[in-house]
Amino acid sequence: MSATVPPVPPAQPVPGAAPVALATTRAPPVAEPVVVVTGPYAGLATRTLAFAADAIVINVVGWFVAAIVTLCLSLLSLPSSVKDVLLVIGAGIALVWTASYFCFFWSTTGQTPGNRLMRIRVVEVATGQPIKPRRAFGRMLGLVLSALLLCTGFLLILFDGRRRALHDRLSGTIVADVAAEPPIRTVAPPRRTRR
């Protein structure tokens, strides 16, 4: 026969006694693995062709929407001042569409349709993963800056070892060629020795 042992009630604090802190031990922090993004990196020609393909997609969608809106507005009799305001609004929408296109694709998969066609990917240097939306927006602003400087921001690709343009340097990204082996490898963290 087995005897049952009644459960032991939890210890009650002694009235008037100071609380006792339990000693806890913490494990030493474990170093995170280091992500190293190795080549091959996308060059100027590949990136230019990918950008041209993206420009075609952006413009075809923009022209299609503009044609529909223009057709609908042609049915109405609007004063020229209203048409001018609508034109400015349309230009603003086109800019938002273009920025959203790049930011969306860079922050989700790291590949726009043009990048996918050319088999390249935008990744963060530190992690090797697609960039966050805020960084994608900053990269988009850097892209405009690269173009405003008579395209000299793009020419940095020819002289940088990792083929980074000005906007890549500003946003902490690289454009990796994914047609070859995966460009990302993880290096185990150094082991800590106990003394």
UniProtKB/TrEMBL annotation:
One of its GO terms (cellular component) is plasma membrane. It comes from the Bacteria. This is RDD domain-containing protein. InterPro entries: Pra-immunoreactive, RDD. The keyword Transmembrane applies. The chain crosses the membrane at residues 56-78, 85-107, 140-159. Its main location: membrane. Residues 41-172 form the RDD domain. Keywords: Cell membrane, Membrane, Transmembrane, Transmembrane helix.
